[in-house]
């Protein structure tokens, strides 16, 4: 009985920002005292879900409801307190307090200050080394200019569904806040699931017909696979193009065993780690 009381105490003090991130939700804007999210409890286009970084409390202005970390899990998963505690027993990394949140918010951040059509010669050359045509890259990506620790940089950028950016150049791989998956919607009953930016661009080069009339999710991190999987029930078919490595193969196997509509498409690049590795090999053979 005492163990249950302690568990409830710890659950109530869960870092709300970290809990939301664990389920794929990131702030639209942040100040020193609060963070604003699109509500994880309902559909909306303007962020009205507030988290106090000082009190570590949340409040959804759209439904007039708020609370602590445990309340949030119960509301998000639509479960009982007991079920929420069972869920959290396997999520020990969620246990952190508001002081750590404030410290994290003060860390250096990437600041995007210009978004434009890809034109920098260094980025065009980088695309060439990955065997991606400029027209393909310009269709899906932008050239992003950003600052970090007082210095300015440029990179290829793929926008995510929370308006953050995945950033890539020859020397740098990162993302601007908020970190999230990218969702390209075509109002389709067919979904394609990819790991990263260059998987998307390589698929467009190798198998462009696969992208016609399909919705596409680029995970940008395998950590988003769990929250994204809740969308699978909305589709007749979900095609996985996860990497041919231990993590990708494990996740593909797990998803196929749980969802009847999921198919593993990694056979299309069998013998290669990912789609881009196959693309580079195919283009090299044609040049010989």
Can you describe this structure?
With 288 residues, this protein is of the alpha+beta class. 36% of the residues lie in helices and 23% in strands. It folds into 3 domains: 2-105, Alpha-Beta Complex (DNA Primase, Chain A), CATH 3.90.580.10; 127-175; 182-287, Dna Topoisomerase Vi A Subunit, Chain: A, domain 2, CATH 3.40.1360. The protein contains 12 helices and 15 strands. β8 (151-159) and β9 form a beta hairpin. α3 packs across α4. The longest helix is centred in the C-terminal third of the chain and has 13 residues, at 246-258. The radius of gyration is 21 Å and the shape is globular. It starts with a helix and ends with a helix. Mean pLDDT is 86; it is low at 1-6 and 93-105.
Note the topology.
Elements: H1 2-12, H2 16-22, E1 29-30, E2 34-37, E3 49-52, E4 57-60, E5 65-67, H3 69-77, H4 81-88, H5 98-105, E6 111-116, H6 121-129, H7 134-140, E7 142-148, E8 151-159, E9 165-168, E10 173-175, E11 182-184, E12 190-194, H8 197-206, H9 208-211, E13 215-218, H10 225-229, E14 237-241, H11 246-258, E15 262-264, H12 275-287
Parallel strand pairs: 12-13, 12-14, 14-15
Antiparallel strand pairs: 1-2, 2-3, 3-4, 4-5, 6-7, 7-8, 8-9, 9-10, 11-13
Helix pairs in contact: 3-4
């Amino acid at each position: 009985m005492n163990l249950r009381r302690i568990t409830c105490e710890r659950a109530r003090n869960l870092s709300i920002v970290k809990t939301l991130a664990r389920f794929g939700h990131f702030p639209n804007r942040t100040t020193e005292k609060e963070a604003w999210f699109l509500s994880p409890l309902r559909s909306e286009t303007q962020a009205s879900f507030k988290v106090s970084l000082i009190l570590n409390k949340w409040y959804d202005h759209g439904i007039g409801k708020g609370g602590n970390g445990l309340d949030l899990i119960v509301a998000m998963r639509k479960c009982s307190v007991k079920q929420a505690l069972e869920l959290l027993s396997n999520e020990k990394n969620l246990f952190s307090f508001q002081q750590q949140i404030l410290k994290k918010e003060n860390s250096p951040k990437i600041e995007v200050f210009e978004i434009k059509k890809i034109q920098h010669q260094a980025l065009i050359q980088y695309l060439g080394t990955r065997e991606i045509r400029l027209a393909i890259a310009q269709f899906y990506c932008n050239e992003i200019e950003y600052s970090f620790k007082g210095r300015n940089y440029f990179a290829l950028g793929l926008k995510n569904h929370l308006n953050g950016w995945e950033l890539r150049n020859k020397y740098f791989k990162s993302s601007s806040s908020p970190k999230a998956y990218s969702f390209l919607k075509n109002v389709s009953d067919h979904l394609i699931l990819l790991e990263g930016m260059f998987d998307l661009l390589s698929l467009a080069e190798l198998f462009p017909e696969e992208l016609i009339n399909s919705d596409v999710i680029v995970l940008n991190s395998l950590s988003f696979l769990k929250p994204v999987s809740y969308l699978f029930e909305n589709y007749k078919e979900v095609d996985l193009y996860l990497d041919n490595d231990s993590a990708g193969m494990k996740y593909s196997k797990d998803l196929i065993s749980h969802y009847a509509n999921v198919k593993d498409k990694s056979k299309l690049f069998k013998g290669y780690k990912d789609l881009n590795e196959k693309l580079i090999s195919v283009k090299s053979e044609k040049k010989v």
